[in-house]
Specification:
alpha/beta; five-stranded mixed beta sheet; three-stranded parallel beta sheet; 9 helices; disordered C terminus
Amino acid sequence: MAQRFEEAGWHMATGLSEAPVMGGRSWLADATLLSGRTVKYESVYRHLTPKLKTLNSIPSFFGQRGYRTVLMRPKDKARPGVELVNHFGFTDTVFHKDLNYQGRNYGWVEIPDQYALGHIRDVVMPTLDGQPEFVFAHLGSSHIPWDQIPPILDDWRKLDDTGKRREKKAKELTKKEIKFQLKRFKRQGAVRLRRLRPTAENLSEYLQAIRYSLEVVMRHILDMDDPPDLIVVMGDHQPPMYKKSDDFSVPMHILARDPALLKGFRDHGFTDGARFGLPKGRIYHEGFFSLLVGAIAEAQDVQPPKFHRRGFGINTAKGE
């Protein structure tokens, strides 16, 4: 992967970022990354989400500077117990129905990563009005159960022809499902969900899912006619098969054509290429916001702001 990017003129720096959760609850990891605040528990998330549009965050940082901010979440659709909400106030959203996918369902997210990325690149982005863009794309083909890996086709549109799509009807919440959702509010020292026992079979399936995800992301980047200045490719959290592990860190790859944009990341432990170092040199999801802003400032010869390794306080107001 690193060699293919290098041959195409990209520079890469890689590090580790510690997630607040392991094995599930992606929305807590996402909220932590985008807000710059540790969101470890469901109750904190529920208290924080009504305030997100008024707090400094990565989307608001770019939005205040004239960027179109685009959120893509292929799995998200309104259903009993779950609202379809744009908590961070992105200017543009792409949810499940917006993708208009007609092909076969694959895995948990149903819509293949290649299709979702192709749609946002070739359908959504050309409709924007020439402003600079910040895009947050949450992908799902590498989500458990890993037993239905989509094919990789030369044209993402042909995935519509892979079979008849089965639209799952929304069902009313059962007592069991309500109990399952209420369990999210349980507080433990380490938010670790272990729903699988690691076996040779599911480890192999997981590896295939990761290979698929990285391959389609790489092809997506290399196929862009007008790629962004900075690209972040990362995992939200580790898979749900660790019984005892204190390492909640995930790989984070930073790509740029201008190596100056990578200096701020290298200054905080990121190394050249696709290999990452030891967990002791990691950053944290909540610290990524200030690291990103600092790296951009440094590349423009502007005094970078203070690096908040553990993020901002949960009560930090806008402008602070």
